[in-house]
Design goal:
The chain is an all-alpha fold. The chain is 85% helix and 0% strand. InterPro entries: Cenp-F (IPR043513), Centromere_CenpF_N (IPR018463).
């Protein structure tokens, strides 16, 4: 705590000073928790970005084959519905 921050507490009762100290400790704890949660969020975001890249690579690799199979199925003279009978 700097001297400027300590100045405003001069003359406060012991009970009030204790409450100020508790609030400062609470503030510091919340600040640390926030920093930790932000780090977790950043890690999750990085992981998500990696997964997105994997999905795009998978899609780019298999999309042409999927389209080819779909075209073959749609153009096939034997329809799937005929197998159900």
């Amino acid at each position: 705590m700097s001297w400027a921050e300590e100045d405003w507490t001069v003359g406060l009762s012991g009970r009030v000073l204790q409450k100020v100290k508790e609030l400062q400790v609470h503030k510091e704890r919340l600040f640390r928790e926030n920093k930790q949660k932000q780090l977790q969020l950043d890690n999750i975001h990085a992981s998500l970005e990696k997964q997105i890249v994997k999905v795009h690579l998978f899609y780019a690799r298999f999309y042409p084959k999927i389209c080819e199979i779909k075209w073959e199925i749609e153009c096939s003279p034997v329809k799937i519905s005929s197998f159900k009978k």
